[in-house]
Structures are given as structure tokens and as C-alpha cells.
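I hope you will forgive my troubling you with a question about protein structure. The full record is reproduced below for your convenience:

——
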Amino acid sequence: MYTMRSWWFTSFWSACLIMTICSYGRFESHWSSREKKYNRAEIYKQTDQCTDARLRAKLGDFSKCEESEEILRMTPFKAAFYDIMEDINVCGHGRCYILYMDITKNFFRFAIGFLALCVVGLWTGLVDMKQMWDRKVQDHFTLPIKKKS
């Protein structure tokens, strides 16, 4: 028998499977790009700019040694996993900031839409209350019907 619980269960696991399949391609893409950066950072870390303390001090902020150390802090697999998590996250890649900017930029439109929605909800509620009142009045003034036994 098909129940509501089995429908939720099937839908949940189907969504998980589809999300996993779709994320796998992006994960490979993130992993390959992170691996390239990791290998380049490893090579750069072994150059004279990073190994020679005097040269590194002379270069100061112009050197990419610190950036290379930051890249080498995480393995490419772990970094790619974090990239996928940011893709899945609701606020990942600055989406919440973009939504905030859209709302503040178009605040007047959102306010008018919200007020229109409130008016429609209030009107629907009043119509429903009037129908309930009419039904109550009709039931009050209706004679009971004798049922045959």
C-alpha cells in the first residue's frame, strides 16, 4: 500500500541521489582546479622568493609566499569539498547579500506587494467569516428534521 510516509521517504532519497549525481561533476571540476593551484603553490614555495629570507623580506607584500602557504594549508580534496558545500549552501557565493541588495533597492515594490498580499488575505478571511456567520444563522433558524428509524 502506498502511504504518505513512503512518498516522503522515496522523494527524500531521490532528491539526495539527484543532488549527489549533479554535484559530482562540479566536485571533479573544483578538485582539478584546486589540485592545479596546490601543485603551483608547492612549486612556488620551493623557489628562491620563499626560501631566501632576505629576498622574502625585501619583496614584502609583493611576494606570493603567503598566498601559497594559504593554498597549501588544505588538501585539494578538502578544498573541493568545501567548494561544493558553498555551492549547496543557501547563502553561499554571496547569495544572501545579493538578495539583501535586491530587497533594499526595490523596497517600495516589495512593500506594495506585501501590502497587496495582506489585503487579499484580509478580504479572504472576511469573506470566509461572513459565510460562516450566514451558515450559523441559517442553522439557528432551521427546524430540526426527524430521522426515520
Residues 4-45 form the longest helix (42 residues).
